[in-house]
Amino acid sequence: MAAEPALAVRDVEGPAAMAACIALYAEVMGLRPSDGGLNPRLLTALQSNGGIVVAAYEGDLARPVGFAYSFLAREGGGELFQFSQLAVVARHLQGQGVGRLLKHAQRERTLAMGLTRIRWSYDPLKTRNAHFNLDVLGGRVHVLKPSMYGGEGFGDDAGEPTDRFLLDWDLTRPATVRPTLPDRAWQPGECLAQGDDLLIAVPARWDLHRTAVGAPAAAALRTSLRETFTEALATHVGVSCLRVTDDLAVYRFVPRGTDQEGAS
Questions:
Q1: Which stretches of the chain are DSSP H helices?
Q2: CA atoms of 133 and 144, how far apart (whole Å)
Q3: pLDDT tens per residue across span 1-54
């Protein structure tokens, strides 16, 4: 049996390589012509002015199988950090460690700049992303931004609101193993206290849940969860998202300022 091709991450150089990354992004996200997108000039300008543009390649193939870019950012005159605007992985390699390679490449380059934080946004109901961001990397959710990118998503997310969690990844702090979740029958949208922590149950596969219950019921649950998350984040920080069944995942929020949360 032949060995699987090695994966390597490298900086993206030149218009052709940039264009290949953009094509991968459009393919994975299911973009329509009207959705707009990136262009090589923008990525080149970002990379030339403190941004990071990296791609993962399979073996010696020139076509990327993963792509991520970030840019320098500052919040309210504070410290500089990298804002990671997107990271995508080819569908046939999702869940096989490509995303981790891309994120650690971003981490390495960010630390080389003398910076210690990367921020990005993600849909709270994309629980696979949530688990990776929180439990694997050790990021922290501090804020929910309702309709961050306008009233409706694009590509495969067309028709969905663009509510986003803002997540900060402290590059100097390792991920933490969280307490075991209670063994119980969870319901989507339920919020439960475990000691000082708050546990919030969400559908594990939002796309399947939306199809199963219908668009109106799904929209009502998303609105309810927006309110629940906002209330939780007033006093707590999101630190974990674990799947408890094939259909449900549970977020954990811990009090702000606790040693366990490690808030800065």
A1: 15-29, 40-48, 98-112, 127-131, 206-213, 215-233
A2: 15
A3: 444 558 899 999 999 999 999 999 999 988 777 667 789 999 999 999 999 999
What amino acid occupies position 139?
A: G
Cα 244–Cα 245–Cα 246 angle in degrees, nearest 5: 135
**Two tokens at 190?**
């339920």
CA distances from 241 to 198, 253, 261 (A): 12, 9, 14
**CA–CA separation, 243 vs 155, rounded Å?**
26
Of 83, 92, 86, the C-alpha closest to 26 is 86
Tokens for 123, please give them: 């849909």
Q: Is 0.85 topped by the overall pTM?
A: yes
| Residue 263 confidence (pLDDT) above 50 | no
Sorted by sequence, the CB contacts under 8 Å of residue 23 that are 6+ apart come out as: none
Two tokens, residue 28: 């994975």
The structure tokens listed for 43 are 């990525």
Say if residues 189 and 224 touch (Cβ distance below 8 Å): yes
pLDDT tens, residue by residue, 107-164? 999 999 999 999 999 999 999 999 999 999 999 999 999 987 766 555 555 567 789 9
Size of the chain in residues: 264
Q: Which amino acid is at 1?
A: M
Interacting residues of 128 by C-beta distance below 8 A, sequence separation 6+: 95
Count CA atoms closer than 13 A to 126's CA, side-chain side. Answer: 14
> Following DSSP, what letter does each residue of 13-47 receive, concatenated?
-SHHHHHHHHHHHHHHHT--GGG----HHHHHHHH
Distance of alpha carbon 185 from the chain centroid: 27
